[in-house]
Protein backbone atom coordinates (compact mmCIF):
# COMPACT_ATOMS: atom_id res chain seq x y z
CA UNK A 1 0.00 0.00 0.00
CA UNK A 2 1.21 3.53 -0.80
CA UNK A 3 2.15 5.42 2.36
CA UNK A 4 0.46 8.63 3.48
CA UNK A 5 3.04 9.20 6.21
CA UNK A 6 3.39 12.91 6.92
CA UNK A 7 -0.02 13.77 5.42
CA UNK A 8 -2.71 15.30 7.63
CA UNK A 9 -6.41 14.72 6.97
CA UNK A 10 -9.50 16.31 8.50
CA UNK A 11 -12.67 14.26 8.07
CA UNK A 12 -15.86 16.27 8.51
CA UNK A 13 -18.59 14.05 9.93
CA UNK A 14 -18.39 10.82 11.93
CA UNK A 15 -20.97 8.76 10.09
CA UNK A 16 -20.13 5.23 8.98
CA UNK A 17 -18.43 6.48 5.81
CA UNK A 18 -16.25 8.93 7.72
CA UNK A 19 -15.29 6.35 10.35
CA UNK A 20 -14.41 3.84 7.64
CA UNK A 21 -12.30 6.34 5.69
CA UNK A 22 -10.50 7.33 8.90
CA UNK A 23 -9.46 3.74 9.55
CA UNK A 24 -8.16 3.21 6.00
CA UNK A 25 -6.21 6.48 5.91
CA UNK A 26 -4.73 6.04 9.37
CA UNK A 27 -3.67 2.52 8.40
CA UNK A 28 -1.87 4.08 5.43
CA UNK A 29 0.08 6.33 7.80
CA UNK A 30 -1.89 9.59 7.66
CA UNK A 31 -2.51 11.80 10.69
CA UNK A 32 -6.32 11.66 10.79
CA UNK A 33 -8.71 13.82 12.79
CA UNK A 34 -12.48 13.28 12.60
CA UNK A 35 -14.68 16.20 13.62
CA UNK A 36 -18.37 15.68 14.35
CA UNK A 37 -21.14 18.27 14.62
CA UNK A 38 -23.12 16.37 17.24
CA UNK A 39 -22.41 15.11 20.74
CA UNK A 40 -21.75 11.49 19.71
CA UNK A 41 -20.06 9.60 16.91
CA UNK A 42 -21.97 7.59 14.32
CA UNK A 43 -23.82 10.19 12.27
CA UNK A 44 -27.31 8.93 11.49
CA UNK A 45 -26.43 5.80 13.48
CA UNK A 46 -26.88 7.73 16.72
CA UNK A 47 -28.19 6.31 19.98
CA UNK A 48 -30.90 7.61 22.27
CA UNK A 49 -30.46 6.68 25.93
CA UNK A 50 -32.91 7.84 28.59
CA UNK A 51 -34.64 6.50 31.69
CA UNK A 52 -33.08 3.07 31.31
CA UNK A 53 -34.05 2.67 27.64
CA UNK A 54 -31.66 2.56 24.69
CA UNK A 55 -32.59 2.96 21.02
CA UNK A 56 -30.68 2.89 17.76
CA UNK A 57 -31.99 6.17 16.33
CA UNK A 58 -31.15 5.36 12.73
CA UNK A 59 -30.06 2.06 11.14
CA UNK A 60 -31.26 -0.96 13.08
CA UNK A 61 -30.79 -3.89 10.64
CA UNK A 62 -27.46 -5.75 10.49
CA UNK A 63 -27.35 -7.05 6.92
CA UNK A 64 -24.54 -8.19 4.61
CA UNK A 65 -22.28 -9.65 7.33
CA UNK A 66 -19.70 -10.43 4.64
CA UNK A 67 -19.08 -6.70 4.19
CA UNK A 68 -18.29 -6.23 7.87
CA UNK A 69 -16.05 -9.30 7.87
CA UNK A 70 -14.16 -7.99 4.85
CA UNK A 71 -13.77 -4.54 6.42
CA UNK A 72 -12.27 -5.81 9.66
CA UNK A 73 -10.10 -8.36 7.80
CA UNK A 74 -8.37 -5.48 6.01
CA UNK A 75 -6.95 -4.57 9.43
CA UNK A 76 -6.25 -8.19 10.49
CA UNK A 77 -9.27 -8.26 12.74
CA UNK A 78 -12.72 -9.86 12.84
CA UNK A 79 -16.10 -8.52 13.96
CA UNK A 80 -16.00 -10.95 16.89
CA UNK A 81 -12.98 -9.06 18.22
CA UNK A 82 -15.49 -6.29 19.03
CA UNK A 83 -19.02 -7.73 19.17
CA UNK A 84 -21.00 -10.95 18.94
CA UNK A 85 -23.87 -11.59 16.52
CA UNK A 86 -27.26 -13.21 17.05
CA UNK A 87 -29.02 -14.69 14.01
CA UNK A 88 -32.63 -13.52 14.21
CA UNK A 89 -35.45 -16.02 13.85
CA UNK A 90 -37.69 -14.90 12.33
CA UNK A 91 -35.65 -12.53 10.22
CA UNK A 92 -38.74 -10.33 10.31
CA UNK A 93 -42.52 -10.49 10.53
CA UNK A 94 -44.99 -8.90 8.12
CA UNK A 95 -48.51 -7.82 8.99
CA UNK A 96 -50.87 -6.87 6.19
CA UNK A 97 -53.70 -4.50 6.97
CA UNK A 98 -56.27 -7.10 5.90
CA UNK A 99 -55.20 -9.37 8.77
CA UNK A 100 -52.65 -11.63 7.04
CA UNK A 101 -49.33 -12.32 8.76
CA UNK A 102 -46.10 -13.83 7.35
CA UNK A 103 -42.90 -14.76 9.15
CA UNK A 104 -39.73 -14.90 7.03
CA UNK A 105 -37.36 -17.28 8.80
CA UNK A 106 -33.85 -18.68 8.21
CA UNK A 107 -35.54 -21.91 7.03
CA UNK A 108 -35.89 -21.44 3.27
CA UNK A 109 -38.05 -24.53 2.85
CA UNK A 110 -40.50 -23.13 5.37
CA UNK A 111 -40.55 -19.80 3.54
CA UNK A 112 -41.12 -21.57 0.21
CA UNK A 113 -44.13 -23.29 1.74
CA UNK A 114 -45.52 -19.94 2.83
CA UNK A 115 -45.09 -18.59 -0.71
CA UNK A 116 -46.72 -21.69 -2.15
CA UNK A 117 -49.75 -21.14 0.10
CA UNK A 118 -50.37 -17.82 -1.68
CA UNK A 119 -49.68 -18.89 -5.25
CA UNK A 120 -49.15 -22.27 -6.91
CA UNK A 121 -45.56 -22.57 -8.06
CA UNK A 122 -44.38 -19.60 -5.98
CA UNK A 123 -42.11 -21.76 -3.82
CA UNK A 124 -40.03 -22.84 -6.82
CA UNK A 125 -40.24 -19.30 -8.24
CA UNK A 126 -38.70 -18.05 -4.99
CA UNK A 127 -35.84 -20.50 -5.39
CA UNK A 128 -35.20 -19.31 -8.97
CA UNK A 129 -35.47 -15.67 -7.89
CA UNK A 130 -32.89 -16.21 -5.15
CA UNK A 131 -30.52 -17.98 -7.54
CA UNK A 132 -30.65 -14.89 -9.77
CA UNK A 133 -30.29 -12.64 -6.74
CA UNK A 134 -27.24 -14.57 -5.54
CA UNK A 135 -25.56 -14.30 -8.95
CA UNK A 136 -26.30 -10.59 -9.15
CA UNK A 137 -24.94 -10.10 -5.63
CA UNK A 138 -21.69 -11.96 -6.20
CA UNK A 139 -20.92 -10.29 -9.53
CA UNK A 140 -22.36 -6.91 -8.62
CA UNK A 141 -20.52 -6.61 -5.31
CA UNK A 142 -17.12 -7.70 -6.59
CA UNK A 143 -17.10 -5.86 -9.90
CA UNK A 144 -19.47 -2.91 -9.47
CA UNK A 145 -19.62 -2.08 -5.74
CA UNK A 146 -16.08 -2.67 -4.49
CA UNK A 147 -14.82 -1.27 -7.82
CA UNK A 148 -15.57 2.44 -8.19
CA UNK A 149 -16.33 2.81 -11.90
CA UNK A 150 -16.74 6.54 -12.39
CA UNK A 151 -16.56 6.83 -16.18
CA UNK A 152 -18.96 5.57 -18.83
CA UNK A 153 -16.11 4.11 -20.86
CA UNK A 154 -15.35 1.73 -17.98
CA UNK A 155 -18.77 0.15 -18.52
CA UNK A 156 -18.17 -0.54 -22.20
CA UNK A 157 -14.81 -2.14 -21.49
CA UNK A 158 -14.88 -5.74 -22.79
CA UNK A 159 -13.99 -7.34 -19.44
CA UNK A 160 -16.55 -5.23 -17.59
CA UNK A 161 -19.21 -6.03 -20.16
CA UNK A 162 -18.43 -9.74 -19.75
CA UNK A 163 -18.91 -9.50 -15.99
CA UNK A 164 -22.13 -7.55 -16.43
CA UNK A 165 -23.61 -10.10 -18.83
CA UNK A 166 -26.75 -11.52 -17.26
CA UNK A 167 -27.10 -8.87 -14.57
CA UNK A 168 -30.56 -7.32 -14.24
CA UNK A 169 -29.32 -3.85 -15.09
CA UNK A 170 -32.39 -2.36 -16.75
CA UNK A 171 -36.05 -2.18 -15.89
CA UNK A 172 -37.64 -1.53 -12.53
CA UNK A 173 -37.91 -3.73 -9.49
CA UNK A 174 -41.66 -3.86 -10.12
CA UNK A 175 -41.14 -5.28 -13.61
CA UNK A 176 -38.53 -7.75 -12.39
CA UNK A 177 -40.57 -9.11 -9.50
CA UNK A 178 -43.70 -9.42 -11.66
CA UNK A 179 -41.72 -11.83 -13.83
CA UNK A 180 -41.63 -14.29 -10.95
CA UNK A 181 -44.71 -13.68 -8.79
CA UNK A 182 -48.29 -12.67 -9.57
CA UNK A 183 -49.62 -12.34 -6.04
CA UNK A 184 -49.25 -8.71 -4.88
CA UNK A 185 -48.35 -9.73 -1.32
CA UNK A 186 -45.47 -11.88 -2.51
CA UNK A 187 -44.28 -9.01 -4.67
CA UNK A 188 -44.26 -6.82 -1.57
CA UNK A 189 -42.25 -9.36 0.40
CA UNK A 190 -39.59 -9.30 -2.32
CA UNK A 191 -39.56 -5.51 -2.50
CA UNK A 192 -39.64 -4.37 1.13
CA UNK A 193 -35.84 -3.91 1.06
CA UNK A 194 -36.41 -0.89 -1.17
CA UNK A 195 -37.06 0.95 2.10
CA UNK A 196 -33.32 0.62 2.79
CA UNK A 197 -32.50 2.08 -0.63
CA UNK A 198 -34.89 4.99 -0.32
CA UNK A 199 -36.80 4.11 -3.47
CA UNK A 200 -40.06 2.67 -4.73
CA UNK A 201 -40.81 -0.43 -6.84
CA UNK A 202 -41.22 1.71 -9.95
CA UNK A 203 -38.14 3.96 -9.63
CA UNK A 204 -35.52 1.50 -8.32
CA UNK A 205 -33.49 -0.46 -10.91
CA UNK A 206 -34.03 -4.22 -11.11
CA UNK A 207 -30.34 -4.72 -10.26
CA UNK A 208 -31.30 -4.29 -6.61
CA UNK A 209 -32.99 -7.66 -6.60
CA UNK A 210 -29.59 -8.63 -5.20
CA UNK A 211 -30.94 -7.43 -1.84
CA UNK A 212 -33.07 -10.58 -1.65
CA UNK A 213 -29.87 -12.65 -1.46
CA UNK A 214 -28.86 -10.42 1.44
CA UNK A 215 -32.20 -10.98 3.14
CA UNK A 216 -33.00 -14.65 2.53
CA UNK A 217 -29.54 -16.22 2.13
CA UNK A 218 -27.11 -14.13 4.18
CA UNK A 219 -29.64 -13.56 6.94
CA UNK A 220 -30.66 -10.81 9.35
CA UNK A 221 -28.52 -10.46 12.47
CA UNK A 222 -28.41 -8.47 15.69
CA UNK A 223 -25.02 -7.21 16.86
CA UNK A 224 -24.22 -7.03 20.55
CA UNK A 225 -25.13 -3.50 21.66
CA UNK A 226 -27.18 -2.91 18.50
CA UNK A 227 -25.87 -0.86 15.58
CA UNK A 228 -24.48 1.51 18.20
CA UNK A 229 -22.20 -1.33 19.31
CA UNK A 230 -20.94 -1.61 15.72
CA UNK A 231 -20.22 2.13 15.69
CA UNK A 232 -18.23 1.67 18.91
CA UNK A 233 -16.23 -1.02 17.14
CA UNK A 234 -15.38 1.27 14.21
CA UNK A 235 -14.34 4.01 16.64
CA UNK A 236 -12.24 1.64 18.75
CA UNK A 237 -10.51 0.31 15.64
CA UNK A 238 -9.79 3.87 14.54
CA UNK A 239 -8.26 4.72 17.90
CA UNK A 240 -6.08 1.61 17.68
CA UNK A 241 -4.85 2.91 14.32
CA UNK A 242 -4.21 6.42 15.68
CA UNK A 243 -7.37 8.34 14.67
CA UNK A 244 -8.37 11.36 16.79
CA UNK A 245 -12.05 12.26 17.28
CA UNK A 246 -13.65 15.60 18.18
CA UNK A 247 -17.37 15.74 18.94
CA UNK A 248 -19.47 18.91 19.32
CA UNK A 249 -17.29 20.53 16.64
CA UNK A 250 -19.34 21.50 13.58
CA UNK A 251 -17.48 22.68 10.50
CA UNK A 252 -18.53 26.10 9.20
CA UNK A 253 -16.33 26.53 6.11
CA UNK A 254 -13.71 24.78 3.99
CA UNK A 255 -11.07 27.23 2.79
CA UNK A 256 -7.95 26.81 0.75
CA UNK A 257 -4.56 27.79 2.07
CA UNK A 258 -1.06 27.50 0.67
CA UNK A 259 -0.33 23.81 0.39
CA UNK A 260 -3.61 22.63 1.86
CA UNK A 261 -6.83 23.53 3.67
CA UNK A 262 -8.18 25.54 6.54
CA UNK A 263 -11.33 24.00 8.00
CA UNK A 264 -13.23 26.56 10.03
CA UNK A 265 -15.13 25.15 13.00
CA UNK A 266 -17.03 26.66 15.90
CA UNK A 267 -14.11 25.75 18.13
CA UNK A 268 -11.45 27.29 15.97
CA UNK A 269 -9.74 26.49 12.65
CA UNK A 270 -7.93 23.29 11.71
CA UNK A 271 -5.19 23.04 9.13
CA UNK A 272 -4.75 19.94 7.01
CA UNK A 273 -3.27 18.71 3.76
CA UNK A 274 -6.49 16.93 2.71
CA UNK A 275 -10.17 17.10 3.62
CA UNK A 276 -12.83 14.40 3.42
CA UNK A 277 -16.46 15.38 3.89
CA UNK A 278 -18.84 12.83 5.34
CA UNK A 279 -21.36 15.60 5.86
CA UNK A 280 -24.32 15.77 3.50
CA UNK A 281 -22.97 16.33 -0.04
CA UNK A 282 -25.36 19.23 -0.83
CA UNK A 283 -24.70 20.82 2.59
CA UNK A 284 -20.94 20.64 2.04
CA UNK A 285 -21.17 22.22 -1.39
CA UNK A 286 -23.84 24.82 -0.69
CA UNK A 287 -22.84 25.84 2.84
CA UNK A 288 -19.15 25.04 3.41
CA UNK A 289 -17.62 25.89 0.01
CA UNK A 290 -17.57 29.29 -1.71
CA UNK A 291 -19.66 29.47 -4.92
CA UNK A 292 -16.65 29.34 -7.24
CA UNK A 293 -15.44 26.03 -5.75
CA UNK A 294 -18.71 24.11 -5.97
CA UNK A 295 -19.06 21.17 -8.33
CA UNK A 296 -22.85 21.47 -8.55
CA UNK A 297 -25.20 24.42 -8.35
CA UNK A 298 -28.42 24.74 -6.36
CA UNK A 299 -30.52 23.74 -9.37
CA UNK A 300 -28.73 20.39 -9.54
CA UNK A 301 -29.54 19.53 -5.93
CA UNK A 302 -33.12 20.72 -6.33
CA UNK A 303 -33.58 18.44 -9.34
CA UNK A 304 -32.48 15.28 -7.55
CA UNK A 305 -34.77 12.53 -6.22
CA UNK A 306 -34.31 12.10 -2.49
CA UNK A 307 -34.97 9.12 -0.29
CA UNK A 308 -37.80 9.51 2.21
CA UNK A 309 -37.60 11.22 5.53
CA UNK A 310 -39.23 9.45 8.47
CA UNK A 311 -41.69 9.98 11.27
CA UNK A 312 -40.26 8.20 14.30
CA UNK A 313 -41.66 7.38 17.72
CA UNK A 314 -39.20 6.00 20.27
CA UNK A 315 -41.25 4.33 22.99
CA UNK A 316 -40.46 2.77 26.34
CA UNK A 317 -43.44 0.70 27.45
CA UNK A 318 -44.48 -1.39 30.41
CA UNK A 319 -44.75 -5.13 29.82
CA UNK A 320 -43.97 -7.32 26.82
CA UNK A 321 -44.71 -7.11 23.10
CA UNK A 322 -45.62 -10.72 22.29
CA UNK A 323 -47.21 -9.96 18.91
CA UNK A 324 -44.06 -8.37 17.47
CA UNK A 325 -40.81 -9.85 16.20
CA UNK A 326 -37.53 -7.99 16.61
CA UNK A 327 -38.21 -6.55 13.14
CA UNK A 328 -41.83 -6.15 12.04
CA UNK A 329 -43.19 -4.58 8.86
CA UNK A 330 -46.78 -3.44 8.42
CA UNK A 331 -47.92 -3.25 4.79
CA UNK A 332 -51.19 -2.09 3.24
CA UNK A 333 -52.62 -4.53 0.73
CA UNK A 334 -51.78 -1.96 -1.97
CA UNK A 335 -48.72 0.04 -1.00
CA UNK A 336 -48.34 1.98 -4.25
CA UNK A 337 -50.41 4.83 -2.81
CA UNK A 338 -47.88 5.29 -0.01
CA UNK A 339 -44.99 5.52 -2.49
CA UNK A 340 -47.00 8.04 -4.51
CA UNK A 341 -47.43 10.15 -1.37
CA UNK A 342 -43.64 10.12 -0.95
CA UNK A 343 -42.38 10.66 -4.50
CA UNK A 344 -45.23 11.98 -6.66
CA UNK A 345 -47.70 13.89 -4.49
CA UNK A 346 -45.92 14.59 -1.18
CA UNK A 347 -48.24 14.41 1.81
CA UNK A 348 -48.59 12.66 5.13
CA UNK A 349 -49.48 9.04 4.22
CA UNK A 350 -53.03 8.01 5.06
CA UNK A 351 -52.49 4.27 4.46
CA UNK A 352 -48.81 3.86 5.28
CA UNK A 353 -46.31 1.06 5.01
CA UNK A 354 -44.20 1.23 8.16
CA UNK A 355 -41.66 -0.54 10.35
CA UNK A 356 -41.71 -1.54 14.02
CA UNK A 357 -38.50 -2.41 15.85
CA UNK A 358 -38.59 -4.16 19.23
CA UNK A 359 -34.93 -4.75 20.17
CA UNK A 360 -35.87 -5.83 23.68
CA UNK A 361 -37.14 -9.07 22.08
CA UNK A 362 -33.45 -9.97 21.61
CA UNK A 363 -31.48 -7.68 23.92
CA UNK A 364 -32.64 -7.33 27.53
CA UNK A 365 -30.18 -4.48 28.15
CA UNK A 366 -32.16 -1.97 26.08
CA UNK A 367 -35.00 -1.63 28.59
CA UNK A 368 -35.47 -1.82 32.39
CA UNK A 369 -36.85 -4.99 33.94
CA UNK A 370 -40.52 -5.46 33.17
CA UNK A 371 -40.40 -3.07 30.22
CA UNK A 372 -39.87 -3.15 26.47
CA UNK A 373 -38.23 -0.79 24.00
CA UNK A 374 -39.75 -0.23 20.57
CA UNK A 375 -39.88 2.34 17.85
CA UNK A 376 -42.26 3.12 15.03
CA UNK A 377 -40.84 4.34 11.70
CA UNK A 378 -43.09 5.67 8.94
CA UNK A 379 -41.35 6.72 5.69
CA UNK A 380 -42.62 10.17 4.67
CA UNK A 381 -41.73 12.63 1.94
CA UNK A 382 -38.75 14.91 2.62
CA UNK A 383 -39.68 18.57 2.93
CA UNK A 384 -43.12 17.95 4.43
CA UNK A 385 -44.52 20.54 6.82
CA UNK A 386 -43.55 19.23 10.24
CA UNK A 387 -45.10 21.05 13.20
CA UNK A 388 -45.71 19.89 16.81
CA UNK A 389 -49.44 19.84 16.10
CA UNK A 390 -49.00 17.63 13.01
CA UNK A 391 -46.69 15.30 14.91
CA UNK A 392 -49.13 14.97 17.80
CA UNK A 393 -52.04 14.13 15.53
CA UNK A 394 -50.00 11.67 13.44
CA UNK A 395 -48.64 10.04 16.57
CA UNK A 396 -52.18 9.28 17.72
CA UNK A 397 -53.10 8.01 14.25
CA UNK A 398 -50.11 5.66 14.12
CA UNK A 399 -50.54 4.19 17.60
CA UNK A 400 -54.17 3.46 16.76
CA UNK A 401 -53.07 1.89 13.47
CA UNK A 402 -50.45 -0.29 15.20
CA UNK A 403 -53.03 -1.51 17.69
CA UNK A 404 -55.62 -2.28 15.03
CA UNK A 405 -53.20 -4.06 12.69
CA UNK A 406 -50.83 -5.96 14.99
CA UNK A 407 -52.81 -6.22 18.23
CA UNK A 408 -50.11 -4.28 20.10
CA UNK A 409 -51.85 -1.47 21.97
CA UNK A 410 -49.26 0.44 23.99
CA UNK A 411 -51.19 3.68 24.40
CA UNK A 412 -51.80 3.21 28.15
CA UNK A 413 -48.38 1.60 28.79
CA UNK A 414 -45.99 4.29 27.52
CA UNK A 415 -43.52 5.48 30.19
CA UNK A 416 -41.01 7.13 27.84
CA UNK A 417 -41.54 8.78 24.45
CA UNK A 418 -39.43 10.76 22.02
CA UNK A 419 -40.35 11.93 18.51
CA UNK A 420 -38.09 12.58 15.53
CA UNK A 421 -39.11 13.80 12.09
CA UNK A 422 -38.30 15.90 9.03
CA UNK A 423 -37.10 19.02 10.85
CA UNK A 424 -34.91 16.96 13.17
CA UNK A 425 -33.14 15.22 10.27
CA UNK A 426 -32.47 18.62 8.70
CA UNK A 427 -31.24 20.17 11.95
CA UNK A 428 -29.22 17.30 13.40
CA UNK A 429 -27.69 15.95 10.19
CA UNK A 430 -27.88 18.94 7.80
CA UNK A 431 -29.76 16.63 5.44
CA UNK A 432 -31.38 18.12 2.34
CA UNK A 433 -35.07 18.83 3.08
CA UNK A 434 -34.81 16.43 6.00
CA UNK A 435 -34.23 13.28 3.96
CA UNK A 436 -33.35 10.40 6.26
CA UNK A 437 -30.96 8.72 3.81
CA UNK A 438 -29.85 11.09 1.04
CA UNK A 439 -30.07 10.53 -2.70
CA UNK A 440 -32.45 7.73 -3.70
CA UNK A 441 -31.24 4.83 -5.86
CA UNK A 442 -33.12 5.64 -9.03
CA UNK A 443 -31.69 4.52 -12.38
CA UNK A 444 -30.39 8.06 -12.98
CA UNK A 445 -28.82 8.17 -9.52
CA UNK A 446 -27.05 4.80 -9.43
CA UNK A 447 -23.36 4.02 -9.83
CA UNK A 448 -21.53 6.56 -12.02
CA UNK A 449 -24.63 8.81 -11.97
CA UNK A 450 -24.12 9.57 -8.26
CA UNK A 451 -21.83 12.45 -7.28
CA UNK A 452 -18.16 11.36 -7.24
CA UNK A 453 -15.77 10.85 -4.34
CA UNK A 454 -13.37 13.44 -5.75
CA UNK A 455 -14.67 17.01 -5.47
CA UNK A 456 -15.14 18.47 -8.93
CA UNK A 457 -13.94 21.94 -8.06
CA UNK A 458 -11.27 21.42 -5.38
CA UNK A 459 -8.15 19.27 -5.56
CA UNK A 460 -7.54 17.52 -2.27
CA UNK A 461 -11.19 17.55 -1.19
CA UNK A 462 -13.07 14.24 -1.18
CA UNK A 463 -16.54 12.98 -0.32
CA UNK A 464 -17.74 9.83 1.38
CA UNK A 465 -21.12 8.46 2.47
CA UNK A 466 -24.56 7.61 1.13
CA UNK A 467 -24.78 10.45 -1.41
CA UNK A 468 -21.85 9.10 -3.40
CA UNK A 469 -20.98 5.54 -4.50
CA UNK A 470 -21.89 2.83 -3.80
CA UNK A 471 -24.84 4.42 -1.98
CA UNK A 472 -27.22 4.16 0.95
CA UNK A 473 -26.97 1.89 3.98
CA UNK A 474 -24.39 0.96 6.61
CA UNK A 475 -22.58 -1.69 4.48
CA UNK A 476 -22.50 0.61 1.44
CA UNK A 477 -21.14 3.51 3.49
CA UNK A 478 -18.51 1.18 4.95
CA UNK A 479 -17.42 0.35 1.40
CA UNK A 480 -17.66 4.02 0.43
CA UNK A 481 -14.95 4.74 3.00
CA UNK A 482 -12.66 2.27 1.31
CA UNK A 483 -13.35 3.77 -2.14
CA UNK A 484 -12.63 7.28 -0.90
CA UNK A 485 -9.39 6.15 0.69
CA UNK A 486 -8.39 4.39 -2.54
CA UNK A 487 -9.00 7.61 -4.51
CA UNK A 488 -6.82 9.56 -2.06
CA UNK A 489 -4.03 6.98 -2.19
CA UNK A 490 -4.14 6.88 -5.99
CA UNK A 491 -3.99 10.68 -6.28
CA UNK A 492 -1.21 10.93 -3.70
CA UNK A 493 0.86 8.26 -5.46
CA UNK A 494 0.49 10.06 -8.79
CA UNK A 495 1.44 13.43 -7.33
CA UNK A 496 4.52 11.96 -5.65
CA UNK A 497 5.69 9.76 -8.52
CA UNK A 498 9.15 10.58 -9.91
Automatic annotation (TrEMBL):
Matches recorded under Pfam families: Amino_oxidase
GO molecular function terms attached to this record: oxidoreductase activity
InterPro entries referenced in this protein's UniProt entry, alphabetically: Amino_oxidase (IPR002937), Carotenoid/retinoid_OxRdtase (IPR014105), FAD/NAD-bd_sf (IPR036188)
Record-annotated Amine oxidase domain positions: 17-489
Cell inner membrane in keyword set: no
Gene3D superfamilies: FAD/NAD(P)-binding domain
Record keywords: Carotenoid biosynthesis, Oxidoreductase
Pathway(s): Carotenoid biosynthesis
GO biological process, one term: carotenoid biosynthetic process
Family annotation (NCBIfam families): crtI_fam
Name of protein: Phytoene dehydrogenase
Organism, as annotated: Natronorubrum daqingense
Amino acid sequence: MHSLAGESVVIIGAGVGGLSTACHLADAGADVRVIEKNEQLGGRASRLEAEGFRFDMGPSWYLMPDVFERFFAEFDRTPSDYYELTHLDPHYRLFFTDGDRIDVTPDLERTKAVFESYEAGAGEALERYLEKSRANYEVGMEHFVYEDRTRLREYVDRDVARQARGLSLLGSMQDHVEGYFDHPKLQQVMQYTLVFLGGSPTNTPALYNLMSHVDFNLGVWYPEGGIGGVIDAFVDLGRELGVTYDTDRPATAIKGREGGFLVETRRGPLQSDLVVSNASYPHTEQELLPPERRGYDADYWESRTYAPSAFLLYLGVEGDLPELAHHTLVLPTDWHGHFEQIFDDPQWPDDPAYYLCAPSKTDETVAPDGHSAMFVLVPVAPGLEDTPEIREAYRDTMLEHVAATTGVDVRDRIVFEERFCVEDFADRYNSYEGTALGLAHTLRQTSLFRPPHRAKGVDGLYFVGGDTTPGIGVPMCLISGRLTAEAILEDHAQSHSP
